[in-house]
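W.,

You were right to be curious about this one. When I first looked at the sequence I had no strong expectations either way, so I just let the prediction run and decided to look at it fresh. Below is the sequence, 207 residues in total, followed by the output.
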Amino acid sequence: MPSFAPAQLSHKDRYHLLINAIVPRPIAWITTRDAAGTVNLAPFSFFNGVCAQPPIVSVSIIDRVPPKDTLVNLRANGEAVVHLVPMGELERMHASGGEYAHAVSEAEVLGLALLPSVRVAPPRLAIADVAFECRLHRIVEVGQPVASLCLLEVVHAHVAEWIATEDGLPDPLRMRAVARLGARNYLTGDGWKIRAMPAQDVPPKLR
């Protein structure tokens, strides 16, 4: 059995150690909005629940140059909508992670309809089975390169009728949200089948 200290590994291998072992992981498909009104959409798989009172979820975003629009918008206005990725939306979710120009709305490019939120400014995806309207609770910076661990408080939730149980809560077996495995592999659709995706390739005119 291989056994080693993480310090013995390269940064890339430490990353793959985590993403290949901590599986499956839910994907946060996040909409934010900048001061000009542009809606940004991006996926993040370092995502999970934190606590129930208040209801807080966590999303880890690596600080980079240039910074991710999601992180810039969260720091500027502290609002976002976190969606679970519905089965059948793997391709558009994956495509939304490409390197688009700041002024480009991924939702518009990918033909994803938006609906007004109830308590936050960023709109939500009409196609999402579960959407959490969130306000930023705090950002904790950890690691090197720095990862911004964003703690987001859920202030309003939307659940599609077709996945809701009698109490209105989501049934995960009906929802079957897309989940991330290691490398570029995902669980998706009926039976949560394994799918492999290529690296994001965005046409230059959209960058």
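Here's what jumped out at me. DSSP finds five helices and 13 strands in the chain. And, maybe more interesting for your project: Helices lie at 11-21, 69-77, 90-95, 106-109, 172-175.

Coffee later to discuss?

I.
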